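Reagents: none. Just compute today. Methyltransferase FkbM domain-containing protein.
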Amino acid sequence: MKKLALNLPSKFAFYPTKLTPRDELLALLRDLRPLETEHPLIRLGGDGDGGYLLPDDLDGLAACFSPGVDVNSSFEFDCADRGMEVFMVDASVEGPAARHERFHFQKKFIGSFTEDPYISMQDWVDSTPVAKDGDLLLQMDIEGYEWETLFSMSTALMSRFRIIVIELHKLENLFSDAIFPILSRCLRKLLHTHDCVHIHPNNIAPMVRSRGLEIPWYGEFTFLRKDRISQRKPATRFPHPLDRDCEPDEPSMVLPKEWWN
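Predicted 3D structure written out:
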């Protein structure tokens, strides 16, 4: 996540459309409530931005796909050190921030369809030498293009990713009744195949508050495919002991209780 100069409303949400009904928003937050499973969370990547929590269920993963490189490759480096081939795309940089023999980079953006300089997730995965039946890891931070990318992915492709780690952008739009149906359907599509196992709000921007609810502008979400989980109970530790602030110069941020309590 690039640090941006932001002038954001921290106390209230203002929209030209009416606000999302509170009960519909709460229903989505309940569906997204993180679960504690038999797989404890571990941290890959460095402290701060670029490090993520994910379940310790990495054995047998054939590859990591990581669209959005920016200037930090610590997460990808840790994946490569664990034996995964790591495929990266980002047209805004010339290559990864570090070198590893298992890194594979293309100067492209990810989007909903293939048209230079964009490539769809399906075409990207199909273009690699990864076995067609192997489990994969997806770590995606693509500055808002995650929404159209998720919508464009088939259930079969989504299910190939055992673990999905995504930085979701512009979450404050969940408050907008005009945009909520689109974002909520996208999230529920993901929840059809995966369960949420962790949420970490990015403290680069303040919370947006409305009607007693708080939503972060950006959040790091971790999902685990449902068939990998046999023990489910609500997670209750927020922040997790392994969580780190994305922006050390900004105030720390804790996931609001309505997201997990």
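Residues 3-12 have pLDDT under 50 and may be disordered.
Action item: order primers for follow-up constructs.
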